[in-house]
Amino acid sequence: MWKIAISNLPNMGDHQTAAVKQAPLSGRQLDPWRSVLAIARWLDIPGLHQRMENLMVSYHNQKPELEGENEIQVLLMSIEALMTSEGNDQLIFSANDLQRSWIG
């Protein structure tokens, strides 16, 4: 397997370029999937590349549920919820207001 991988390494750049061009994600969301998509294209197994793209998009959509949310995301979502509920472009709130808007 290693020998096959090394002997085909020069071709992988073309597969990766093609995979990235047609990928539905970009930037940091795409980075962990570049190699997976390139190898799926290189293997040329019918439907494999599309299945890997579907898996990538599905994971991306479920990522907050799978990995949880960080404190900054929670803070920004709480502020957005307060602003939306108040209907203002300026918002004055206390830490307790922020906590209540998130916890509900």
Number of strands: 0
Total domain count: 2
Radius of gyration: 21 Å
- Low-confidence spans: pLDDT under 50, at least 5 residues? none
The number of helical runs is 6
Distance between the termini: 54 Å
Q: What would you call the structural class?
A: mainly alpha
- What's the helical proportion of residues? over 70%
The coarse overall form would be rod-shaped
Order of helices and strands: HHHHHH
Q: Give the DSSP E fraction (strand runs of 2 or more residues).
A: under 5%
Structure in a nutshell:
Helix content is 72%, strand content 0%. By secondary structure, it is mainly alpha-helical.
Structural summary, described in words:
There is one protein chain. With 104 residues, the protein is mainly alpha-helical. It folds into two domains: 2-67, no CATH class; 71-103, no CATH class. The chain is built from six helices and no strands. It has helices at residues 2-7, 9-22, 34-43, 48-67, 71-86, 95-103. Helix 5 packs across helix 6 (95-103). The N and C termini lie far apart (54 Å). The mean pLDDT is 82.
Notable traits:
single chain; 104 residues; 2 domains; rod-shaped
Strands, helices and their partners?
Elements: H1 2-7, H2 9-22, H3 34-43, H4 48-67, H5 71-86, H6 95-103
